[in-house]
Amino acid sequence: MTDISTTYMGLNITSPVIISSSALTGDLQKIIECERFGAGAVVLKSIFEEQIRAEAEHGVSNSNEMYHWFPEAKEHVMGLTLDANLDKYLKFVKEAKKAVSIPVIASINCQTSNEWPRFAKSIEQAGADAIELNISIFPFNASLTSAEIEGQYVEILKAVKKEVSIPVSVKLGSYFTNLCSIARDLVNNGAQGLVLFNRFYRPDIDINTMEVIADNFLSIPEEQSISLRWIALMAGSKINCDLVAATGVHYHIGVIKMLLGGAQAVQICSTLYTNGIPYIETILSDLKDWMAKNRFEKLDDFRGKALNESTTLPSFERIQFIKRDFE
Question: β-pairing, 104-109 with 47-48?
Answer without folding.
Answer: parallel
